[in-house]
Amino acid sequence: MTIIKAGKLLVRILKEEDKYLLAKWLSDPEILQYYEGRDNPFYLEKVEKKFFKEEDDATRCLIEFNGEPIGYIQFYEVDAEEKLTYGYEDSTELIYGMDQFIGESDYWNKGVGTLLVSSMVKYLIEEKGAGCIVMDPQTWNGRAIRCYEKCGFEKVKLLQANEWHEGEYRDCWLIEYRGKVGEEM
């Protein structure tokens, strides 16, 4: 099922046969440096457990560009525990979180990530009714943060020692999008 079609970009629901691509990407040290950590490769069994058997409310999708599979994105309603961590415990608005990576490094630094993130923001606002969209990139990941800021996200809170990555807890930025579709993008 297609979630987004924007020019050469297509985002569709993950299929069982996509597990081989996820295992390829998530065992590549170049990709793992930014997503999950080089000390945490995902081989087929781990991919099946995390992406196909884990019980949560995330919608898991494959990213295609010009007909080629290039990465992964997931989105989900932020739960009560995350709302507390992020400081939204009193909020009544619908808050969505998203995580993504481009697994084919040939597509890095070409505007594909910006198109992906801005298209997903539009989808979450228009189709899912999101009032706020959040992500928590690690503070050292400048390329990702610049992409998100280009798409209208703003840093709102430093999350100290928030994510285990390559043998240590790393600081992350809580970033949020609160604009209307078409603003900042």
UniProtKB/TrEMBL annotation:
Signal peptide: none annotated. GO terms for molecular function: aminoglycoside 6'-N-acetyltransferase activity. SUPFAM superfamilies: Acyl-CoA N-acyltransferases (Nat). Its EC number is 2.3.1.82. It is an enzyme of class 2 (transferase). This is Aminoglycoside 6'-N-acetyltransferase. It holds the Pfam family Acetyltransf_8. It comes from the Bacteria. Keywords: Acyltransferase, Antibiotic resistance, Transferase. GO terms for biological process: response to antibiotic. Residues 9-176 form the N-acetyltransferase domain.
